[in-house]
Design goal:
Helix content is 26%, strand content 28%. It is built from seven helices and 19 strands.
Length: 323
């Protein structure tokens, strides 16, 4: 166990954290980035990526994150592998404690711990994750042009994803456990008016079916159970989208940083600044709307630039006070 102090700490190694590291390093801030159990963030469980600028051909999510990490390290970012389990943000320097027992203090902190999609917990769901099972229609919907897909959920996210998928798929089945939707009325009206969408009421996804012939697994259908009758029905399709919400990774910041009712960090308008000066939040940890790698990278850039300005102001104030 040991103690370490840095001027700038970045927590999280997804698109937001790595982009923040690149910009901070290029500003000579000598940033240190701490990544946990999933270096690279959610992109590491995304197979085909076709919407990240600069790549006209389909690329792999893990490869993309490896390239961004290499770029961050190449410009001088110090990388540490540890799982942060505790944070004390009530006084400066800010203090983080790792599962390793090591402690890390810093003068400025960029939080980019991201958010995780909520999953149903089915073995078959995990088996085909990234190979026909997704939690992001705007990320993966394009790959289901001319195919049939299903969306699981009944809130705003599920309805929005179902409507979006009709731009690509020939048919979208919305599977919901209840006999009424929880989504906003205007969204429900748009959903019900769309001829490509069929709602499977009072039902739960029991199993994702597929095959392993060829180079990669493929989804071929689903098994759905009617909650009221226990009857099982099988449907043939090529894609399944789980849309039961996301959970931001902010538990260690509860009662320290301002959050919305879902746990996302609240930042100031047109800024990544949190309610505590010197702490900035970037990426999906503060974005419950877009949740795209490119928008996460954009806020990572913002966080680094704002951190640079924050630290420069501290130096100026210290210099003036000493005169």
């Amino acid at each position: 166990m040991s103690d370490h102090h840095y001027d700038v700490l970045i927590l999280g190694s997804g698109a937001a954290g790595l982009t923040a590291a690149i910009y901070a390093a290029r500003a000579n801030l000598e940033p240190t980035l701490i990544h946990g159990m999933q270096p690279g963030g959610q992109m590491t469980i995304t197979t085909d990526v076709e919407n990240f600028p600069g790549f006209p051909e389909i690329i792999q999510g893990p490869w993309l994150m490896e390239q961004i990490q290499a770029q961050a390290e190449g410009v001088g970012t110090n990388m540490i592998s540890d799982l942060i389990i505790e944070a004390n943000l009530q006084k400066k320097p800010f203090k983080l404690t790792g599962d390793s027992g090591n402690t890390y203090t810093c003068n400025a902190l960029i939080i980019s711990t991201g958010a995780e999609a909520k999953w149903l917990g089915l073995d078959s769901e995990l088996k085909y994750q990234g190979f026909g099972v997704s939690a992001c229609a705007t990320c993966d919907g394009f790959f289901y042009r001319g195919k049939q897909v299903a969306v699981v959920g009944g809130g705003n996210t599920a309805v929005e994803e179902a409507i979006y998928l009709t731009k690509h798929a020939t048919k979208v089945m919305l599977i919901h456990r209840r006999n009424s939707l929880r989504a906003e009325k205007m969204l429900q009206k748009r959903l019900l008016a769309n001829p490509k969408i069929e709602i499977i009421w009072d039902s739960a996804l029991e199993e994702v079916m597929g095959k392993h012939e060829g180079p990669m697994p493929e989804v071929t259908g689903i098994r759905v159970r009617n909650i009221k009758t226990d009857n099982i029905t099988e449907y043939s399709l090529e894609g399944v989208f789980i849309a039961i919400g996301h959970q931001p990774n902010t538990s260690i910041f509860v009662n320290q940083l301002k959050m919305d009712e879902e746990g996302y960090l609240i930042t100031q308008p047109d800024s990544t600044a949190t309610n505590i000066p010197g702490i900035f939040a970037a990426g999906d940890v503060q974005d419950n709307k877009f949740r795209q790698a490119v928008t996460a990278a954009g806020t990572g850039c913002m966080a680094a630039l704002e951190t640079e300005k924050y630290l420069a102001n501290i130096v100026n104030q210290t210099t003036m006070a000493a005169q």
